[in-house]
């Protein structure tokens, strides 16, 4: 409870009247005392007739988990134990800084309303378990002389998990598994190396695909239908160093890389490949051996949920050398990492070159959309021109690093945050169909 602006104004006015009267009319002390007693009596009466916190029942509702980068609803239900609710109630939350609320919420219960509910949107910006500790309520008293404040313990937690909404919505399955002839079967057609089936030759087919021996036995022309080879080994390699903890379009690069890695794990499981996981920063961290994609997905989801945000610089030499020693067969290695300039990228390029001699490497980097806006500023001030020059230089250095990696046989993907998952799945389908592994 605290005095409202109305009560403060009345007190200041009464004090001014008291000082003025005491100077000019000294025999008015009884009237001044009566004025202060009336003001005190009004304040006490206002406190008595107002709704106190003990006369309300507060209910909370919070989902046990949510996806990073999404919003979740925290619902507050208020109902009176006796009488009616105040006309205007302000709600504030005491919560972890990783949970962001848009604004303070005001409730305006209708006259005679038995219960009122409010929904606060919490923006989930980082993975982990975060608590909502307390709920603060503030409402004016009946005579608007006081502001009633109540603190309600909430004690609820939410587990912020990597975003697998593309998997749950079926977007990945739609992109990888088009329905063919009503059968839910993956057939990445192309110049594959794995035999699929024999088909009768019809006009328009490539004559080079005719199987002459079986055609002679069956006394009709048949062709060999091939498909992309399965059971490839895919290693999702995530850099969890300092640069990957940078915020990009709402949440960190590391979270975006994890979301794309899990989507690719699910897609590779549908395609029949084996998927493993590896993370490193200043030293090697986690290594999960390759398993069938669908079996690996829940395990990788648990591992990625516990991946920490590191503050140390990434040691590409130690991390990638350790990975190279753990792999016994040719694999598709997808590296999610980042760099600042061409100088800091030299060691990364050298170690990726070593990996590319025995494996097929895909390098994935996230491009900041703000750089493209800074290149062509709307204003022509000196600061805007300086930012434009710096942004242009950064983009040129990124392009130089990507071109150097491409000359080494590395497939580079420099994508925007919103398009990262779909671009990565499209590249994976291209790699599978062209037998690039």
Automatic annotation (TrEMBL):
The UniProt keyword set, sorted, is: Membrane, Transmembrane, Transmembrane helix
State the Gene3D superfamilies in the record.
von Willebrand factor, type A domain
A matching Pfam family? DUF58
- Which domain of life does this protein belong to? Bacteria
User: Does the keyword Membrane belong to this entry?
Assistant: yes
Transmembrane segments annotated in the record for this chain = 7-25, 31-49
Q: Quote the protein name from its UniProt record.
A: DUF58 domain-containing protein
């Amino acid at each position: 409870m605290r005095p409202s602006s109305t009560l403060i104004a009345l007190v200041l006015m009464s004090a001014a009247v008291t000082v003025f009267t005491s100077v000019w009319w000294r025999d008015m002390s009884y009237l001044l005392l009566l004025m202060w007693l009336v003001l005190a009596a009004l304040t006490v009466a206002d406190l008595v007739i107002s709704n106190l916190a003990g006369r309300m029942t507060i209910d909370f509702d919070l989902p046990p988990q949510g996806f990073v980068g999404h919003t979740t609803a925290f619902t507050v239900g208020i109902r009176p134990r006796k009488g009616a609710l105040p006309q205007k109630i302000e709600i504030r939350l005491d919560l972890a800084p990783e949970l962001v609320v848009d604004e303070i919420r005001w409730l305006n219960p209708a006259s005679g309303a038995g219960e009122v509910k409010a929904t606060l949107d919490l923006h989930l910006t980082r993975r982990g378990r975060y608590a909502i500790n307390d709920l603060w309520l503030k409402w004016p008293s009946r005579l608007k002389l006081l502001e009633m404040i109540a603190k309600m313990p909430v004690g609820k937690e939410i587990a912020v998990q990597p975003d697998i909404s593309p998997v749950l919505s079926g977007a990945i399955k739609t992109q990888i598994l088009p329905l063919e002839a009503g059968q839910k079967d993956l057939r990445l057609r192309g110049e594959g190396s794995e035999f699929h089936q024999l088909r009768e030759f019809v006009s328009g087919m490539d004559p080079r695909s005719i199987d002459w021996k079986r055609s002679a036995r069956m006394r009709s022309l048949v062709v060999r239908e091939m498909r992309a080879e399965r059971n490839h080994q895919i290693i999702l390699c995530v850099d969890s160093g300092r640069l990957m903890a940078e915020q990009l379009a709402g949440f960190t690069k590391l979270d975006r890389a994890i979301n794309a890695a899990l989507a690719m794990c699910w897609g590779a499981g549908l395609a029949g490949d084996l998927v493993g996981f590896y993370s490193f920063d200043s030293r090697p961290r986690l290594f999960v051996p390759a398993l069938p994609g669908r079996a690996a997905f829940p395990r990788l989801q648990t591992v990625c949920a516990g991946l920490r945000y590191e503050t140390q610089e990434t040691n590409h030499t130690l991390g990638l050398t350790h990975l190279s020693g753990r792999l016994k067969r040719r694999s598709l290695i997808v590296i999610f990492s980042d760099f600042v300039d061409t100088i800091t990228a030299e060691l990364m390029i050298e170690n990726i070159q070593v990996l590319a001699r025995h494996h097929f490497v895909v390098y994935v980097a996230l491009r900041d959309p703000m750089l493209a806006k800074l290149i062509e500023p709307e204003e022509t001030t000196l600061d805007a021109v300086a930012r434009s020059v710096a942004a242009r230089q950064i983009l040129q250095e990124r392009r130089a690093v990507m071109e150097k990696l491409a000359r080494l046989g590395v497939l580079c993907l420099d994508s925007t945050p919103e398009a990262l998952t779909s671009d990565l799945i499209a590249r994976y389908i291209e790699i599978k169909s062209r037998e690039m592994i």
